[in-house]
């Protein structure tokens, strides 16, 4: 090999090296761009989830006022109905006492009107309508109250005292439409101390895990309703929430990926694959807790949330 050939060889090597570097740089750039895209989508989803809470808070606020005056009017109406009923009974009684009851006597006239229009039925039904409607109003008021609590709007995203059992109960009402047709829900709440956290975010996590459980049960082949069990307990350092479903379970290979952004086994439009990724971010990164899963194929799945009692102290140091 003469000098010229040697030089050409080393040039070629250099070029090859540069090409390899370029390839690596391109790959880094592609990875970076993918990460960016995923982060972007995760933010959008997080905002969507937060929006559920805000929406609930807004609706609760809007409904509160009309619900207030309709309820109060109904109380008054109830009292009026009572008085009118008493008056009606007197009218009937007095008309009967009018022995003449002639065709053209006033009492006879009144009596016939009462009979022809079935006022006895109307009076009775009016009482039923009032009391039934009052129950409906009470239920609406409790739903509104629940939406307010679920959204934690009173604390506006701040770290505040949070009762896990209450959070679960509120979230269950919000998720009722997802759960009620497909599964029974049983709760076993142990007394737990209040923790310091962002309650709206913890409720988002609970909602996501609950909806996942209900969707898993709905998607299984077995007939009949499923069962979701929610247990809580506490020790000196943490509170725990365990949500178990008797759905199809998660195969081992899939279990390793469920917390990855965009990992979903649901059809497009049903799942984004971001729910558990965001849930883990909320529990692990934002609240220094733990979120773990155990599952047996064909048997069901359990998600365990662990939240520290002393989060406030850490947060204060931030
Ligand atoms: N309780 C469960 N039972 C079975 N599979 C589950 C359960 N919870 C989550 N998964 C699996 O984890 C995947 C990711 O869940 P998630 O991050 O909430 O996204 P998504 O619900 O949008 O699919 C789901 O698509 C499903 O395959
Ligand atoms: Mg989900």
Explain this structure to me?
The protein is elongated. It folds into 2 domains: 1-151, no CATH class; 156-317, Heat Shock Protein 90, CATH 3.30.565. Helix content is 62%, strand content 14%. It starts with a helix and ends with a helix. It has 318 residues and is of the alpha+beta class. Helix 1 runs antiparallel to helix 2 and helix 4 crosses helix 6 (199-218). The longest helix is centred in the N-terminal third of the chain and has 95 residues, at 3-97. It has helices at residues 3-97, 106-116, 119-151, 164-174, 176-179, 199-218, 252-255, 275-286, 311-317, and strands spanning 160-162, 183-189, 195-197, 226-234, 238-245, 290-296, 300-308. The structure holds adenosine-5'-diphosphate and magnesium ion. Magnesium ion binds at residues 208, 211-212, 271, 275.
What are the main properties of this structure?
318 residues, alpha+beta, two-stranded antiparallel ribbon, 7 strands, binds adenosine-5'-diphosphate
The top-level CATH class of the largest domain is Alpha Beta
Unreliably modeled segments: 313-318
Question: Radius of gyration, rounded?
Answer: 33 Å
Approximate strand percentage: 5-15%
Please state how the strands of the largest beta sheet are arranged side by side.
2-4-5-7-6
Which architecture of the largest domain would the CATH scheme give at its second level? Answer: 2-Layer Sandwich
Tell me, briefly, the overall form. elongated
What ligand molecules are bound, each kind once?
adenosine-5'-diphosphate, magnesium ion
Q: What multimeric state do the chains show?
A: single chain
CATH topology (level 3) name of the largest domain: Heat Shock Protein 90
- The beta-strand count equals 7
State the helix count: 9
CATH superfamily of the largest domain: Histidine kinase-like ATPase, C-terminal domain
Main sheet attributes: strand count, strand direction, barrel closure = 5 strands, mixed
State the helicity in percent bands.
Answer: 55-70%
**For the residues shown, what is the average pLDDT?**
86
Domains (count): 2
- Order of helix and strand elements from N to C terminus: HHHEHHEEHEEHHEEH
Secondary structural class: alpha+beta
């Amino acid at each position: 090999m003469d000098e010229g050939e040697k030089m050409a060889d080393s040039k070629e090597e250099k070029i090859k090296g540069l090409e390899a570097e370029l390839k690596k740089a391109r790959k880094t750039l592609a990875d970076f761009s993918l990460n960016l895209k995923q982060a972007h989508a995760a933010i959008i989803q997080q905002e969507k989830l937060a929006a559920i809470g805000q929406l609930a808070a807004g609706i609760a606020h809007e409904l509160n006022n009309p619900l207030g005056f309709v309820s109060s009017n109904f109380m008054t109406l109830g009292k009026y109905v009572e008085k009118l009923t008493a008056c009606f009974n007197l009218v009937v009684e007095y008309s009967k006492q009018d022995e003449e009851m002639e065709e053209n006597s006033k009492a006879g006239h009144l009596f016939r009107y009462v009979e022809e229009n079935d006022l006895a039925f109307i009076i009775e039904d009016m009482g039923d309508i009032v009391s039934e409607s009052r129950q409906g109003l009470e239920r609406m008021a409790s739903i509104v109250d629940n939406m307010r609590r679920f959204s934690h709007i009173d604390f506006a995203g701040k770290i505040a005292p949070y009762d896990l059992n209450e959070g679960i109960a509120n979230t269950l009402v919000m998720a009722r439409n997802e759960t009620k047709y497909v599964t029974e829900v049983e709760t076993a709440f142990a007394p737990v101390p209040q923790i310091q956290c962002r309650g709206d975010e913890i409720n988002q996590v609970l909602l996501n895990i609950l909806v996942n459980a209900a969707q898993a049960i709905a998607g299984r082949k077995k007939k009949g309703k499923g069962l979701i069990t929610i247990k809580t307990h506490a020790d000196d350092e943490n509170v725990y929430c365990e949500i178990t479903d008797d759905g199809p379970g998660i195969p081992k290979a899939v279990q390793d990926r469920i917390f990855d952004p965009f990992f979903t086994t649901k059809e497009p439009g049903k799942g984004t694959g971001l729910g558990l990724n965001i849930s883990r971010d909320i529990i692990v990164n934002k609240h220094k807790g733990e979120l773990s899963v155990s599952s047996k194929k064909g048997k069901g799945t359990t998600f365990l949330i662990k939240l520290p009692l002393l989060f406030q102290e850490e947060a204060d140091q931030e």
